[in-house]
């Protein structure tokens, strides 16, 4: 009679751990959290910057290494058609970026000068500003905040001011979507390493 219960008992021991050990659950993993999109007012334009942030289960230094890998931005997200370093000036890096907008109806391009990464109140910043391109303004600000030994939060704020007559809300929404894809790409790449 007890022999019929041995497989059941063995299954329970495997599922919940041997007596005296930590409880081990074999449940399906939680779905990964999505990026949080938001907008930010800037002093440079009436158009709000589109932004997104996401938690990353790695140390902040690895996140910083990934966002400073300018030549590989196209590997982070399909929102970048092209990305390559075109020059360096002291600690600044000039990066050519090409991004489709308005569902591929147009492409923006620009050479963005990124300053070296710096810290303010424990948060790391990487900022870039347009020096040449087919838009009026393009500003990118990456923010990395350490929230634990192996836990970070990364955010990207993008301000793009087009020369085309497009409603501000559409631009901000599209840019927030691009920021979402970029921070999610950073998270995915960092957590694979």
N- to C-terminal distance: 51 Å
Q: Which structural class best describes the helix and strand composition?
A: alpha+beta
Give a short account of the largest sheet.
Answer: 9 strands, antiparallel
CATH architecture assignment: 2-Layer Sandwich
List descriptors.
disordered N terminus; 25% helix; globular; Alpha-D-Glucose-1,6-Bisphosphate, Chain A, domain 4; 193 residues; 9 strands; alpha+beta
Describe the structure.
It is a single chain. The chain has 193 residues and is an alpha+beta fold. It has a single domain, classed as 2-Layer Sandwich (Alpha-D-Glucose-1,6-Bisphosphate, Chain A, domain 4). Helix content is 25%, strand content 43%. The chain has four helices and nine strands. Strands 1, 2, 3, 4, 5, 6, 7, 8 and 9 form a nine-stranded antiparallel β-sheet that branches. β4 and β5 form a beta hairpin. α2 packs across α4. The radius of gyration is 22 Å and the shape is globular. The chain starts with 5 loop residues before the first helix and ends with a helix.
How are the elements arranged and paired?
Blueprint: H1 6-16, E1 36-42, E2 45-56, H2 60-67, H3 73-76, E3 82-89, E4 92-101, E5 106-114, E6 118-120, E7 123-133, E8 137-148, E9 151-161, H4 168-192
Antiparallel strand pairs: 1-2, 2-9, 3-4, 4-5, 5-7, 6-7, 7-8, 8-9
Helix pairs in contact: 2-4
Describe this structure in a few short sentences.
With 193 residues, the chain is α+β, with helices and mostly antiparallel strands.
């Amino acid at each position: 009679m007890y022999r019929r219960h041995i497989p059941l008992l063995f299954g329970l021991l495997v599922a919940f751990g041997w007596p005296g050990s930590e409880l081990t659950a074999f449940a399906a993993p939680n779905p990964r959290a999505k990026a949080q999109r938001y907008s930010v007012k800037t002093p440079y334009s009436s158009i709000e910057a589109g932004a997104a942030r996401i938690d990353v289960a790695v140390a902040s230094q690895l996140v910083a290494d990934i966002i400073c890998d300018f030549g590989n931005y196209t590997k982070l997200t399909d929102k970048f058609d092209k990305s390559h370093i075109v020059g360096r000036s002291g600690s600044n890096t000039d990066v050519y970026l090409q991004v489709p907008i308005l569902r591929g109806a147009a492409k923006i391009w620009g050479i963005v000068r990124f300053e070296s990464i710096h810290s303010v109140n424990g948060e790391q910043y990487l900022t870039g500003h347009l020096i040449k391109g087919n838009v009026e303004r393009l500003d990118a600000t990456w923010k990395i905040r350490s929230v634990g030994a192996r836990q970070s939060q990364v955010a990207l704020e993008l301000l793009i001011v087009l020369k085309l007559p497009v409603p501000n809300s559409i631009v901000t929404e599209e840019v927030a979507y691009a920021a979402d894809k970029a921070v999610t790409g950073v998270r995915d790449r960092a957590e694979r390493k």
